[in-house]
Amino acid sequence: MSESTAGRVVRSGVRGIVTGLAATAAMSVVFVGADRAGAVDRPPPRSIVDHFLPFVPPKASDRAAATTHFAYGAAGGVAFELLMHALHEPRLGRRLASGAAFGLAVWAAGYEGWVPAMNVLPPAHRDHPARVASELAAHLVYGLSLGAFGHLLHRRAARAGAARLDTANPSAARLAPRRREPVRRELERREPGRRELERRAAQRHSPQRRD
Questions:
Q1: Residue 91 in this model has a pLDDT that exceeds 80
Q2: pLDDT tens for each residue of 60-80
Q3: What is the distance in angstroms between the CA of the first residue and the CA of the last residue of the chain?
Q4: CA–CA distances in Å: residue 109 to residues 60, 72, 104, 124, 129
Q5: pLDDT tens digit string along 185-196?
Q6: Tens of pLDDT along 140-149?
Q7: At 210, phi and psi to the nearest 5?
């Protein structure tokens, strides 16, 4: 793997951490809203921590739940951005579709996979519908946020890279106009001939004068 490719992979990983944290914050809003609406008795991250650490005081349990929740979300962000790198940084629409599918895959792996396997919660198909709906909505928001935030950061990085290139090599900014110069000169060379053809055509179509 070349150095430039390695650098792009590292940048994708760093971008994944940032987008993963931001997307986790977005999905947490859904969990908090569901908790306040009474759809769930406890947000799923808190249920997981309480299952494995039942002796931890409530405040410490809240901090542990938030820490593990955001760490898990950041890891998912890294995985998603590396996937986008492998797909050659697709456009926004494809990123959003991929993000939605990724979020639903994370939900299925957790709430139909390892979470019920460890007896933390029942599998989603046997759980309370309100909790399943909130979990699905939260993970959909997570995936869409990964796609949107990642696209935004990728575009900003691309613009910053182009600006650095122009600063380091001012002649690069003038390269495109120079490439157009031969075309402009050729059009100017043909202009007199074009005008002559137009004049002759006008004469042929003009009414003949009669004495």
A1: yes
A2: 998 999 999 999 999 999 999
A3: 86
A4: 27, 13, 9, 11, 18
A5: 665 666 666 667
A6: 999 999 999 9
A7: -115, 135
